[in-house]
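Work Package 3 (structural annotation) set out to generate three-dimensional models for the target panel prioritized at the project kickoff. During this period the team completed the workflow that converts sequence records into discrete structure tokens, so that structures can be stored uniformly alongside our sequence database. As a representative example, we reproduce one entry of 86 residues exactly as it appears in the project archive.
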Amino acid sequence: MAQPTTYDERVEVAHACTLGIDISIPTLIDEMNNEVGEAYYAQPDRLYLVDADGVIAYRSDLGPFGFKSDEFEDAIVQLLQQQPAV
């Protein structure tokens, strides 16, 4: 598959991926200059959980073998429990 050359193409690819693997959490898409990707760069991949203030609440070990879904889920639950009631 060719790399997207426009932001709209990037959105289409991300949408297809989220549908294909049945992701039910919000998916954010970096701009074409990859500013966020460069800021959180990790090779191989890494999972980040960023709180509402932009602070990294969780960072996984190097993936894919460092991805511990239970740890990531626990971090999400803990972060949600810290949020003020709406």
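The chain has three helices and two strands.
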